[in-house]
Amino acid sequence: MIFAAGLGTRLKPLTDTMPKALVPLAGKPLLQWQVEKLRDAGITDIVVNVHHFPDQIIDAVRANNGWGTNIRISDERDQLLDTGGGLRKAFKDGLLGTDEPVLACNVDILSNIDIPHLIDTYTSAPSSSSLEGRRGGVSPSLLVVSERQTQRYLCFNGEDLLCGWTNIATGEQKGFDGRHLAFSGMQILNDDTLSRLQQIDETKFSLIPFYLEIMKEVPLQAYVPSGYRMMDVGKIDQITEAELFAESLK
Q1: Residues 103 and 204 in one domain
Q2: Cα separation of 192 and 219, whole Å?
Q3: Looking at the whole model, is its pTM more than 0.90?
Q4: Percentage of the chain exceeding pLDDT 90
Q5: Looking at 74-83, 156-165, 225-234, which range is the least confident one?
Q6: pLDDT tens, position by position, 110-124
Q7: What pLDDT is stored for residue 129 in this prediction?
Q8: What pLDDT does residue 137 have?
Q9: Total count of domains within the chain
Q10: pLDDT number for residue 71
Q11: Beta-carbon contacts of residue 66 (< 8 Å; ≥ 6 apart)
C-alpha cells in the first residue's frame, strides 16, 4: 500500500493545484517513482489511498495503466484517515487480503532501498530463541529505520525489537529507551500485526502510536538497510535537491 492521501501543505504552492503524489521529480510524479520501484521488486498488486485532488490521481493511474501494475484506489475523499486509519480502511473495504503480509510506504519518501532484500529478510526466520517464542513461528513485522539525525526516534532493545519512542528535542519518552533509529516510512506487517490493526475502534489514527500500543505483545523488528540513502520530499525549497536525488536513483 502506498500512502498518497496527504494534503502536502509543505509543498505549497504546487499542491494548491495538484496532489502531492503527482508532484513531478526528474520527469516523473512521486507516485510513479514509488510504483515502479515496487513493480521492479515483483510487487504488482498495489493499493493507493487518495484524498487531496483524488480524481487527478485516479486519472493518472488509468492513463498510465498503473505503470505496469494492478492499482486499486482506497478513496478517502470524505475524511483523511492518517496512515493507520488508511490501512485499516483498505482492509475493511476488501482492497487488501487478510492472509498475506503487506508492505506499506509513504509516497513522498525516495530511497535506494533494496526491496527484494527487505522481503527476503522478512521471510527468513530470525535466530533469536526468545523472539521465536513470541512470534509463534511467524516472521516479525519489519520497520525500515536508519541512523540518520532527526528529532524523533523509535527505540529498539538488544534484540532489535521496538520498545519505545523518544523526542530528543522535548525530552518526551514513550515506552523504554534503547537504540535510537529514525523511521523511514516503510514497513512489512505480518498477519498478527494486521489483525490487531483491524481491531482498532478509531477511524483516524497513525501507525506509530499503534505500534507503541502493541509492541509488548507483537514483535516489531528493526530493519536497517545497508548503504541506505533516502530523502523525504516534504518541502517546496527541497524540490531541486529532490530532483538531483531522484536522478541519482535511476
Answers
A1: no
A2: 9
A3: yes
A4: 87
A5: 225-234
A6: 999 999 999 999 998
A7: 38
A8: 58
A9: 2
A10: 98
A11: 35, 46
Range of the domain at 241: 1-108+231-250
Same domain, 210 and 156: yes
Query: What's the per-residue H, E or C state across the chain?
Result: CEECCCCCHHHCCHHHCCCHHHCEECCEEHHHHHHHHHHHCCCCEEEEEECCCHHHHHHHHHHCHHHHCEEEEEECCCCCCHHHHHHHHHHHCCCCCCCCCEEEEECCEEECCCHHHHHHHHHCCCCCHHHHHHHCCCCCEEEEEECCCCCEEEEECCCCEEEEEEECCCCEEEECCCEEEEEEEEEEECHHHHHHHHCCCCCCCCHHHHHHHHCCCCCEEEECCCCCCEEECCCHHHHHHHHHHHHHHC
CATH classification at residue 127: 3.90.550.10
